[in-house]
Design brief:
With 247 residues, the chain is mainly α. 82% of the residues lie in helices and 0% in strands. It is built from ten helices and no strands.
Length: 247
């Protein structure tokens, strides 16, 4: 079990660090399959992700993949959304019902992003979105993340790209913001639900720590078009999987 979870942490952090999404959704799904409740799985994943996202965020910062004009408003609004999501997750039942609706929305967005970057000879004028877009995005993405055990990256990264952010900057900024969001969510879970399974947390952290630096370097080296198409394709795959399981 330890080796399975360690391998899951290594692979999912490699994908999440490279494309800005996938760690929480994938590892939470694994724990649910192993019999954990939604709240306990989300608590364990966010505790582990606090450390893995710190290493991933620092790696992206050192690689030059971070834009502070995106990170700051996204982080503060996301922290507020995360606390709200934990409260709802711990105190209300059947929060799983939101998953298929979010997944359907992301499926459409993923298709648009993949099509956009797959279009031949199409250049974008990249820019940083303003606070009026970043603040609600951060709150909603973190709220869904706390409720569903994952969603910060799948919501924040493709939305930033749709706002014309540079894919590399979007991925790096979301990874760095993820540390503050997951730390807030993890602390909130510990206060409201002080039951953390460290047998899950430790192997996830070890696996994530191994792959985090490689993922940041890979993001810096991959062409913009490849990054854009990969983000769109991954979000579509994750969304279809979520809809299928929900139905």
């Amino acid at each position: 079990m330890f080796l399975i979870i360690l391998l899951a942490g290594l692979v999912t952090q490699l994908v999440a660090g490279t494309l800005g999404m996938g760690f929480g959704v994938t590892t939470t799904s694994l724990l649910l399959t192993l019999g954990f409740s939604t709240a306990l799985a989300s608590a364990a994943v966010h505790t582990a992700e606090t450390l893995t996202s710190f290493m991933s965020g620092m790696s992206h910062l050192l690689a030059g993949n971070v834009e502070k004009k995106i990170v700051i408003p996204l982080t503060f609004s996301g922290m507020a959304g995360g606390v709200t999501g934990v409260y709802v997750s711990v105190n209300l039942q059947h929060t799983e019902i939101v998953k298929p609706f979010v997944a359907f929305f992301l499926l459409i967005m993923g298709g648009l992003i993949a099509y956009r970057f797959a279009t031949k000879n199409h250049e974008f004028e990249h820019c940083n979105p303003g606070r009026k877009k970043l603040v609600p995005l951060g709150f909603v993405a973190a709220l869904i993340d706390a409720l569903c055990g994952g969603g910060w990256g799948p919501i924040a990264t493709p939305t930033l790209i749709m706002f014309n952010s540079h894919p590399r900057k979007a991925i790096g900024s979301v990874n760095l913001s993820s540390f503050f969001i997951t730390a807030t969510i993890a602390v909130s879970f510990f206060v409201m639900l002080p039951k953390i399974d460290w047998r899950v947390v430790v192997p996830l952290v070890i696996g994530g720590a191994i792959s985090a630096p490689f993922a940041a370097h890979l993001t810096k080296k991959l062409p913009i078009k490849v990054l854009g198409i990969s983000v769109g394709a991954l979000i579509m795959i994750l969304s279809i999987r979520t809809i299928f399981i929900s139905l």
